[in-house]
Amino acid sequence: MKRLKIIADDKIPFLKGVMEPYADIVYLPGSKITAADVTGADAIFTRTRTKCNEALLKGSSVKLIATATIGFDHIDTDYCDAAGIRWVNAPGCNSWSVQQYITAAIVTLAEKRSLKLPELTLGVVGVGNVGSKVVRTVEALGMCVLPNDPPRAEREGDATFVTLDKLLAESDIVTCHTPLTNEGRHKTRHLASDDFFGRMKPGAVFINTSRGPVADTEALKRASLSAYILDVWEGEPNPDPDLLNGAFIGTPHIAGYSSDGKANGTAACVHEFCRFFDLDVLPDWYPANIPAPPMPLEITLDGRGKSNEQLFFEAITHTYPVREDSDRLKQTPSAFEELRGGYWIRREFKNFTVRTENVNRNVSEALKKIGFKIENTAI
After folding, report:
1. Which residues are catalytic?
2. Which pLDDT tens digit goes with each residue over 101-138?
């Protein structure tokens, strides 16, 4: 019986050695996978750098494309559907990782500007797997939240959601968590346009961790914002130099790159491959030993003389000092893909235990709600 063949992006972590007993697997740089590479393949395991379209797939034997990512705009889904090629993404796989990124970015902004979180309103554009976690997190931190999601509002009713006009006019910070769509009533390409930025509250902050083209680069450069935070860029892996230099935080598309999120995406690919090809193996496979991060997994938090914002900043940026990622990219913009491909071991909040001393119950409860394990919560 002919062995199945997989072409895999060589940056998909924890995968090597897993599928080899059941299929021939070839690892290649995602941006360099060609039609010749996939001609005899049965499946492709990808991330965002392989454009899975007619030019790549026509004439191949590919029957399954599994992407270890939430997004799937790198897959020509219409072509795949017409060609009978099954494609699957991994919804929610790195949503907690992006939640960690957004939380770290907001508390860093608050610390730098001496802002009080309960006095801030966050507008969340797109309330799916990621956006819904962001909503719950910032509510736990005491912020007001304005959620906007037109497709969900149509399905579920308007009671939970606000209009984009209201969100832009009233939000101190606006964060985008939409898929990239190029057409239709809810098109998101260049959603953040001159008009969008012109309707934002004076002095507001813009965050984009969804897809680069959701924000119009030139419009963003013209916008009258007090700051912007970008993890995604038009023209990746070559971000606009002026846009990068002006960013409060600018990172190389790594918001979802926690080791936990990567493990979830890889597991989703393995499980779908086995299901699709009727292999009665690896039904519960998950990476056995995700490496520990470079910082201690236990945090001692002493609340004496510190504001709630300072305590949140201390705990959250212990797990993820997001400005260090920004500094690395700004120092060497040409290393965008290298910084992304060789990303350090970042672990999510759930892996960390906070031991509190002289910390008020509200702070302890908030940290617990956003994912930390809490011990010794004496005031």
Report:
1. 211, 236, 253
2. 999 999 999 999 999 999 999 999 999 999 999 999 99
The whole-angstrom distance between residue 21's C-alpha and the CA centroid of its chain comes to 32
Alpha carbon distance 351, 47 (integer Å): 25
User: Which two three-digit tokens encode residue 224?
Assistant: 């009258």
> Quick one: CA torsion of 187, 192, 195, 199, rounded to 10 degrees?
120
What 3-state class would DSSP assign to 12? coil
17 DSSP assignment: T
Q: Supply φ then ψ for residue 171, to 5 degrees.
A: -90, 135
Exposure string of 80-106, with b = 16+ CB inside 10 Å and e = fewer, is beeeebebbbbebbbbbbbbbbbbbbb
For residue 355, the Cα-to-chain-centroid distance in whole angstroms is: 28
Compute CA distances 10 → 49, 214, 335, 341, 358, whole Å: 11, 27, 18, 9, 47
User: Which residues make Cβ contacts (< 8 Å) with residue 167, sequence separation at least 6?
Assistant: 123, 125, 146, 148, 174
Q: What does the pLDDT read at residue 328?
A: 98
Q: What are phi and psi of 249, to 5 degrees?
A: -135, 130
Written as one string, the DSSP assignment of 179-209 is ----SSTT--TT-B-HHHHHTSPTT-EEEE-
pLDDT tens string 304-350:
999 999 999 999 999 999 999 999 999 999 999 999 999 999 999 99
Phi/psi at 346 (5° precision): -110, 130
**How many Cα atoms sit within 13 Å of 86 on the Cβ side?**
12
List Cβ neighbours of 99 (8 Å cut-off, separation of 6 or more): 130, 133, 134, 137, 370, 371
CB atoms inside a 10 Å sphere around CB 54: 14
Q: In what order do the strands lie in the sheet with 373-378?
A: 298-302, 353-357, 373-378
